[in-house]
Write a structure and sequence with these properties.
- The structure is a single chain.
- This protein is α/β, with parallel strands linked by helices and about 525 residues long.
- It is about 30% helix and about 25% strand.
- The strands form 5 sheets. Strands 6-9-10-3-11-12 form a 6-stranded mixed sheet, with helices on both faces. It has a 6-stranded mixed sheet with strand order 18-19-20-15-21-22, sandwiched between helices.
- The termini are far apart.
- About 0% of the residues have low confidence.
């Protein structure tokens, strides 16, 4: 076995009141793709921030070694000088600059005191061509899809002569096609000698791309496994510390309700919606019913209209061109978020950091944000003690991992941020809960908690709309599934009719093939 290109020895990182890493040991071999797996809060992000120089030497205990020599990174630049490039979920790209300007950001080729634009665009075009990317160097970054942005980040890192590429949840927001393109590029980089650390909650991807897996749990390194000797259930067992026998524990209650007799809680008929007044329809002729105790799944390719449909029903997107929506037996012609919440319909957005949370505020502030009417007394005064008691009930019932509700939401792991988003929605006392990608970017343990929450909601007689890009999740947790294709319903399926092939065919507009 070759000597490690990078090694972590007994790394310990402490924050006030929290030990984020405890004696973590980890090694990276030349030319391998080494996956880091663990629940949210297990220490993965903390570890890569040490490796990338974000947490400087002296702020942690233990030793980092690169090429068998002690490494003391005091900054990101120090780590980059050692050949380590960290690509996080939040892209370090400037939307208003071009692709070429982003690739050479901070190190543009110059001719005298001026930027050599001709050389910059020529070199950028060569790099993009080498990666097989059909992207113009002059295109503004804001015009690219998320998958293309991810590859531009990698192109930039490779042009910096990075030997070690650290990818943190690189496929969290990618389509299946974009995921396959990314994995193909990573395999090619591995063949050329680049070494990768790959962090993902999607274990099927981990097993498709990685050579070895190191599992972190509660800040400690639990085990390192060769992929050829491991299984997904074994990795999950190490991650959560117990055996998981059912990844999708749906407890259907809709079957016990006579679908013919039960009145729909939400009824949508021939709904057509444009992005704005004067624009052409984006959602076209959408019709469905949603009943108490039911999980209605919505799937489709990226851009099919799933998020737009939920946001319109909630009152946060689009101009209605036609159709009828009935909520709890009453027409709902002009939805707006405040009125939707008052009438018992709530949305947990897919973009929790942008639309779901105020990251600089405390957990408690975020939990009660949509329910302040409940705590408002005469004169507009907030009953703070009552608000805090209610917040604590949700903080405890959702098992948010934090010292208390006073902690800033932005410091939480992705899974715990998602719990706060869900808590904020549920505190409004809804009868219809719309969940848009509720498990995106969270670990298997947090996913199971979301699934159990869905079961509790339907057992209480609430109705759930579930949007998911993961077909196994969609089939595992839904009682019925509607697949959208280009803003219209491409197919409807009951549990007995679920197959990935049928659902994917409907998403691609091939209903007859389903």
């Amino acid at each position: 076995m070759p000597d490690p290109i990078l090694e972590a020895r007994a790394l310990t990182k402490r924050f006030p009141g929290v030990v984020a890493l405890k004696d973590v040991n980890f090694d990276l071999l030349p030319g391998e793709i080494h996956a880091l797996c663990g629940e949210n809060g297990a220490g993965k992000s903390t570890l890569i921030k040490l490796l990338g120089g974000i947490y400087p030497c002296g702020s942690y205990e233990g030793e980092l070694r690169v090429d068998e020599k002690t490494a003391a990174f005091c900054s990101i630049r120090d780590a980059e000088s050692a050949g380590i490039a960290v690509i996080t979920q939040e892209f370090a790209l400037v939307d208003e600059l071009s692709v070429a300007e982003n690739i050479f950001l901070g190190r543009a080729p110059r001719r005298g005191f001026r930027v050599d634009w001709l050389t910059m665009h020529r070199r950028a075009a060569e790099l993009l061509r080498d990666f097989g990317l059909d992207i113009s160097p002059e295109a503004p970054i804001r015009t690219l899809g998320i998958g293309q942005k991810q590859l531009v980040e990698i192109v930039r890192a490779m042009d910096k002569k990075s030997r070690i590429l650290v990818l943190d949840e690189p496929t969290a927001a990618l389509t299946e096609q974009e995921v396959e393109v990314l994995l193909t590029h990573l395999r090619r980089l591995r063949a050329q000698g680049t070494t990768c650390i790959y962090i993902s909650h999607k274990l099927d991807e981990v097993f498709a791309i990685a050579d070895r897996i190191t599992v972190l749990r509660d800040g400690a390194s639990v085990t390192t496994l060769a992929v050829k000797d491991a299984t997904i259930p074994l990795v999950i067992k190490h991650m959560v510390g117990r055996e998981i026998t059912d990844l999708f524990p749906r407890k259907s209650v809709a079957a016990s309700v006579s679908e013919q007799a039960a009145e729909p809680i939400l009824s949508v008929r021939s709904l057509s919606v444009a992005p704005a007044k004067g624009k052409a329809a984006f959602l076209k002729d959408i019709t469905f019913d949603l009943r108490a105790g039911e999980v209605l799944g919505f799937g489709g390719l990226m851009g099919a209209g799933r998020t737009e449909l939920l946001m319109h029903l909630f009152g946060a997107w689009g101009h209605r061109l036609g159709g009828k929506v009935t909520l709890r037996g009453q027409p709902y012609a002009r939805p707006c978020p405040g009125e939707s919440i008052r009438r018992g319909l709530v949305l947990a957005s897919e973009d929790r950091r942008r639309y779901g949370l105020i990251l600089e505020q405390e957990i408690g502030f975020n939990l009660s944000l949509s329910s302040l009417r409940e705590f408002t007394r005469l004169g507009g005064r907030i009953d703070a003690p009552a608000e805090q008691v209610r917040n604590q009930q949700f903080f405890e019932s959702l098992r948010v991992k934090a010292p208390g509700q006073h902690v800033r939401a932005g410091t939480l792991s992705g899974g715990n941020q998602q719990k706060v988003v869900l808590g904020k929605a549920l505190m409004t006392g809804p009868t219809v809960v719309m969940l848009d990608e509720p498990t995106r970017g969270i670990d298997v343990g947090a996913k199971l908690e979301v699934y159990e929450l869905i079961n509790r909601l339907t057992a209480e007689g609430k109705a759930v709309i579930l949007v998911s890009s993961e077909l196994p999740e969609l089939m595992g947790m839904s009682d019925r599934v509607l697949m959208l294709h280009e803003g219209a319903i491409g197919g409807e399926f009951t549990r007995a009719e679920f197959t990935q092939e049928r659902l994917l065919a409907a998403a691609m507009g091939h209903a007859s093939a389903a």
